[in-house]
Write a structure and sequence with these properties.
Helix content is 46%, strand content 17%. It is built from eight helices and nine strands. It has helices at residues 4-8, 22-36, 61-79, 99-113, 130-145, 159-173, 198-210, 212-224, and strands at residues 13-17, 41-47, 84-89, 117-121, 151-155, 157-158, 184-185, 192-195, 234-239. A seven-stranded mixed sheet has the order 3-2-1-4-5-9-8, sandwiched between helices. The longest helix is centred in the N-terminal third of the chain and has 19 residues, at 61-79.
Length: 241
């Protein structure tokens, strides 16, 4: 999906994610391209990721929520997003939230934004994380009941990228930590397969680096060459069925 006309066809985009950094890792390139086009792009984040510490001495759980808020703000500034909503749910607890309540809260945002396109997690949650699965379910539920009904896309792994880069990276960084392997398809079968041009890839890597508490080790691997920067260079989505 290198055709800018196709990005323009997505119109107003609402991206619904579980944790700070989901938006950057999964869709920063697509969102930056849309922002450059003058399209409206809005982000929803369900939790502050306050349980996601890889080093509790450096990033204690008691203050991690504030750290990740700041990291997200920095990343969104790089991406060019100025519309963001928190759902204020507990990290690791989305599957325990009453679905109707979460959907009602999300519907209020849908009604304000009136998106043409929604991007989120599929039923697999990509990494298998329960929060990802729950958030994707809420977004699908609200999108399917909306009028007008937006086109909903679910993030999916590129089979080519997984075999070339991500499988090795997963062993080093445990990316797909809740599943043996992610749901994937060949790139030719994707509804959206966006290959980031060099300028957008560099900006995406800057946005990823802003999430220091989550991606410090990845950035070290990129610097020493054990992982290629191409790990962030392809963003793939399928229309929800």
């Amino acid at each position: 999906m290198n055709n800018n006309r196709q990005i323009l066809s997505l119109g107003t985009i609402l991206a619904v994610w579980a944790h700070p950094d989901d938006e950057t890792w999964n869709s920063a390139g697509l969102m930056m391209a849309a922002v450059t086009n003058g399209q409206r792009v809005v982000i929803v984040t369900a939790t502050r990721g306050e349980l996601g510490s890889v080093d509790t001495k450096r990033w204690p759980l008691a203050t991690l929520d504030k750290v990740r808020e700041t990291e997200l703000a920095s990343a969104l500034k790089v991406i060019g997003i100025n519309e963001h909503y928190w759902l204020n749910y507990p990290d690791g607890g989305c599957s325990d939230i009453e679905s109707a309540s979460a959907c009602n809260q999300l519907k209020e945002i849908f009604d304000k934004v009136r998106p043409d396109t929604v991007i989120t997690f599929g039923p697999d949650g990509l990494t298998g994380h329960a929060d990802h699965k729950a958030v994707g379910h809420w977004a699908r539920t609200v999108a399917s009941a909306s009028n007008p009904k937006p086109t909903l896309y679910e993030v999916i792994e590129s089979q080519e990228k997984y075999e070339k880069i991500d499988q090795k990276a997963d062993k080093l960084l445990n990316i797909f930590f809740k599943t043996a392997s992610p749901r994937m398809l060949p790139e030719a079968a994707m509804d959206i397969c966006f290959k980031l041009p060099p300028d957008l890839l560099n900006k995406k890597l800057t946005a990823i680096a802003a999430h220091v508490s989550q991606y410090e080790k990845l950035m070290e691997c990129l610097k020493n060459g054990s992982i290629s920067s191409d790990i962030a260079g392809t963003e793939c989505f399928m229309k929800a069925k």
